[in-house]
Structures are given as C-alpha cells and as structure tokens.
C-alpha cells in the first residue's frame, strides 16, 4: 500500500506541475502521453471526464466510479489546490474504484491493482 500511495503522490505532483505549466487540457494531454497507467481524467473546471485506454467494460466501469468520485468531491466542495487535499481525494477515488472492481468484476486481475 505504501508503494501505491507514493505512486499516487508522485502522479498527483506530476499532473499538477504539467497543469500549472500548460493549463488543464494541454497539461492532461502531456500527462497521458507520458504515463501509460492513466486511464481517465476529470476536469473540474469544465466538469468533464475523459476516458482512454480501456481494456474491457468492467475496467471502464470501475474507472468511471473513480472519476465520478471526483465529481462528487467537486459538488461537496472538497476539490482543492493544496497537495494534501489532492492526495486525499485521489486515495479516496482509488478506494472507490477498487471496491467497485472487486465487487462487480468477475475476474480478479492482480496486475490491475
């Protein structure tokens, strides 16, 4: 779990840096171009979910659960600009994605988690 948390922290930092430098759309595109694990992105400014690289319907649904968590965070006012809030939000969305995947996807894929 520590490895996953450190990965998420680095991922959030990288995405934040690219968004700061290039803006949301260009920053996210540069992020997607360089990080293979990214499967979706929630843009809180225009309230839009971008989905890429889905292998199957179950994976797509679990990733959507992750991104809809960010939407709920936006509605509840917990989307913030500080690193602590961003990390907490990402960990929360990852937890929801994992719960969905484990509950509704037939095959357990250890590489996915």
Number of strands: 2
Query: Which residues form runs of ≥5 with pLDDT under 50?
Result: 1-7
Rg value:
14 Å
Helix content: 55-70%
Query: Which descriptor suits the 3D outline?
Result: globular
List the helices and strands and how they pair.
Elements: H1 2-22, H2 24-34, E1 40-43, E2 48-51, H3 57-75, H4 83-104
Antiparallel strand pairs: 1-2
Helix pairs in contact: 1-2, 1-4, 3-4
Q: Could you please describe the fold and organization of this structure?
A:
The protein has 113 residues and is mainly α. It has one domain (2-104). Helices cover 65% and strands 7% of the residues. The protein has helices at residues 2-22, 24-34, 57-75, 83-104; strands at 40-43, 48-51. Strands 1-2 form a two-stranded antiparallel sheet. Helix 1 packs across helix 4. The longest helix has 22 residues, at 83-104. The termini are close together. Residues 1-7 have low confidence and may be disordered.
How do you describe this structure in short?
This protein has helices at residues 2-22, 24-34, 57-75, 83-104; strands spanning 40-43, 48-51. The protein has 113 residues and is mainly alpha-helical.
Provide tags for this entry.
113 residues; two-stranded antiparallel ribbon; 2 strands; globular
């Amino acid at each position: 779990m520590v490895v996953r948390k450190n990965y998420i922290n680095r991922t959030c930092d990288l995405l934040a840096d690219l968004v700061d430098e290039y803006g949301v759309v260009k920053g996210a595109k540069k992020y997607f171009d360089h990080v293979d694990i990214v499967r979706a992105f929630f843009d809180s400014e225009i309230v839009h979910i971008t989905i890429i690289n889905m292998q199957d319907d179950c994976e797509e649904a679990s990733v959507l659960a992750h991104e809809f968590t960010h939407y709920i965070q936006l509605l509840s006012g917990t989307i913030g600009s500080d690193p602590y809030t961003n990390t907490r939000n990402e960990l929360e969305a990852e937890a929801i994605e994992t719960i969905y995947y484990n509950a509704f996807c037939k095959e357990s894929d250890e590489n996915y988690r």
